[in-house]
Amino acid sequence: MNRRFIFISLIIGWLLVSISPVFDTAIVTNSHDLSHLRLGFPLPIIEQHTSLTPMEEDFPLTVWLLSP
Question: Which domain holds residue 46?
C-alpha cells in the first residue's frame, strides 16, 4: 500500500512538471527578448527561438509555449 502510494505520487508529480510549461506565459517588451524567449518553469532548459518581427506598437506581447 505504501509503495503503491509513493509510485502513484511520483507519476502524478512527473506528469504535472511535464505539462506545466504549456501553461507558462511571459510578457515580452522588445524584439530581442522575443527572439530568445525562455519558457517552461520549472524546466528552464526550454527556450523558444522565433523569427517573428512584430511592429513596435504591438509590444508588450503576452506569449506562451504554444504561440506561433
Answer: 2-64
